[in-house]
Amino acid sequence: MTNEILAQRIAAGESDLVEELWTQVSAFVRQQASRFYFAYHDRCQDMLIDQDDLIQVGYFALVKSIEKYQPERGTKFLTAFGYYLKTQFFALAKMHYTGWRKNTVNACSHLEDRLGSENEARLADIIADDDDELAAIEEEMYQAAVQRAVAKALNDLTQRQLEVITSIYYEGETFEDTAKRYNISKGAVSSIRRASFQKLRRDAGVRAAWAC
Fold first, then answer.
1. What is the dihedral of CA 142, 143, 144, 145, to 10 degrees?
2. Beta-strand (E) ranges in the chain?
3. Which of 2-16, 38-52, 79-93, 120-134 has the lowest mean pLDDT?
4. In the chain, what percentage of residues exceed pLDDT 70?
5. Same domain for 140 and 118?
């Protein structure tokens, strides 16, 4: 089946087809993850993000794309998926907020810069229009739902996982500061963060929120 047909059938309730669609788009995810990683290599290293991390959040982008896909517009599923995929990459690297460039070196310093090769999209192409008030409200509601689900799922983390996630994502500490705080290595912080993400990804409440 094509990506478009699979996406429509999943949206209609055949959730068992998600893995089949993921298998079909996985090569695209790996390709885009590789491009992002090398385009923003310094940023990824600063955040201790590797290509596997980028591929992992691609699953969340897939779930969101299935829900938002509108085949009647004649758009290919990979086109819609590519938008949400890059949005997830930017969020993971904490590049989705105004002023992030002040905190680190970046490879794309202008909205008109290309994300990769000459034929790649511009940064401006994947950033939502600030004038689209309805979309902004919808996104705010979606983020609030995800945050509630994640907050509940945090209760299932181990004490050390909760400490690391809280330090990095709620208190704004760097990986290095977190390592010093708990007397562990930066590598351990990265491993704990990754294990925490994997556990959160499997949580039913979080999966449902991502799909809403």
1. 50
2. none
3. 120-134
4. 70
5. no
Q: Is 43 exposed, middle or buried (0-12, 13-18, 19+ CB in 10 A)?
A: buried
C-alpha distances (whole Å) from 30 to each of 36, 85, 114, 195 are 10, 11, 19, 20
155 with 115, same domain: the answer is: no
Identity of residue 159: Q
For residues 173 and 193, state if they share a domain: yes
pLDDT band (50, 70, 90) for residue 183: very high
Question: Residue 146: which pLDDT band, with cuts at 50, 70 and 90?
Answer: low
CB atoms within 10 A of CB 164: 27
Instruction: Say whether pTM exceeds 0.85.
Output: no
Residue 211 amino acid letter: A
Same domain, 97 and 134: no
- Asked whether residue 5 carries a pLDDT value surpassing 90, the answer given is yes
The owner of tokens 């996630």 is: 165
Give yes or no for a contact between 82 and 64, defined as CB atoms under 8 angstroms apart.
no
- 104 neighbors 43 (Cβ within 8 angstroms): yes
Q: 122: helix, coil or strand?
A: strand
Q: What is the DSSP letter of 114?
A: B
Closest by CA to 47, choosing from 196, 186, 197, 171, is 186
